[in-house]
Amino acid sequence: xxxDQYTQNIIIRNSKELxxxxxxxxxxxxxxxxxALSEINTPDNLAKKQIISPGFINLHSHLAYTHxxxxxxxxxxxxxxxxHKVQNESFDPVSASLAGARLALSTGTTFLVDNxxxxxxxxxxxxxxGLRGIIGLELFGSDPQQAKSILNKAVxxxxxxxxxxxxxxxxxxxxxxxxxxxxxxxxxxxxxKDSSASHILPLLLMHFAEDELEEKxxxxxxxxxxxxxxxxxxxxxxxxxxxxxxxxxNEDKELELLYDFWESLGVLDLKKRxxxxxxxxxxxxxxxxxxxxxxxxxxxxxxxxTHAINLSENEIQELVNHPEISLVSCPRSNQFLKHNMAKxxxxxxxxxxxxxxxxxxxxxxxxxDLRSELKLLVENVGSAGNAGIGVQRQYELLTxxxxxxxxxxxxxxxxxxxxxxxxxxxxxxxxxxxxxxxDPYALILDAEKTRVKEVYVGGxxxxxS
Length: 465
Prior knowledge:
- Mean pLDDT is 85; it is low at 221-230 and 244-251.
- 37% of the residues lie in helices and 21% in strands.
- By secondary structure, it is of the alpha/beta class.
- The chain folds into three domains: 8-55 and 413-464, Urease, subunit C, domain 1 (Roll); 56-213 and 276-402, TIM Barrel (Alpha-Beta Barrel), CATH 3.20.20.140; 221-265, no CATH class.
- Helix 5 packs parallel to helix 11.
């Protein structure tokens, strides 16, 4: 990379080290070194100022939904709209995934975790754009009798994929309420014991406690019986009086929405078997996921849980004792789907929760811009009267902390020798700004003061504005 045409620049190597007036030299996709920049003081170049940063890391997205253009709704109403659009013959996951990958790159993202049921579309998007990341093959299946066959089909699908050094694969069982505990156990036993799974990361990607109703569903005890709506639900969904014990009068409409969605998919009877199986999503996860993962130990497994909006303070403290678990917050998607947001102040105060940010899909967001995601998170934390998140910590959430969350901090998240040469050139909008007088971290995070000019992945230019 040649940067000699710039007369003033800063390279952010990580959240603790800045290098002024230097350039990055890459070799075979990796950073070879950072060397001094020779200035060329010509009239055309004197005004050019830039900051070079590690690329941002988006820990949760669905590229195939980029073109769906859905409207804000509660989760299960939104999911019903989503299913309708996906089943439409005009749905084109290939062009949508490609557009999503380009959109992510244009906002400074160089590494993205894509959760998809459309594996081929995602692979093409990564290969054609040069984006680096993990493709998680989404799995669904509430029928325990189908667990092994679902896994075998997924394994075969992943084995047929052409491998690229910029793409890695993982399993993405959709959520606790859409995947049987038997399938979750099959996946983990396979990953931990099967040596032929070396092309698949020992990492489970999962939506976790995205909707407040999930807690009520697993717990089954937070509802207060109402005869009118309760009797209707008894009749409509063939529930027993025990099933209905304590149904909440003002939550019956939510419950009906949930059950309507599952009934439309023909899986209502399968779903009912999980009701009252745990005290919370975390309790269910410990019983039916962690216990299975800990039972197979030839490869250590990691878990990336997205949303986690309902974790209590005690559960967050308990989670600190599980370094194999990392969390992802998607604040704007939570807002879009009318949820609460995650208890980020408690995540921060615990000093042991690994987490980063994701955008979710453009169908549940307005773009794939991590800087906008971070802005809402910081505003939400501040508005709740909590201690704010410092600028350098904010920066880490998009870079080094996100890399640590997926166990890749030895390869991405900072600009150090022998790591991937994945970085972004941000151009400073104010030509008169003196870079010696500003906080470069704050400047990078402010989309009104800096813009993405160039994006490099493995030392290759993959995007130029």
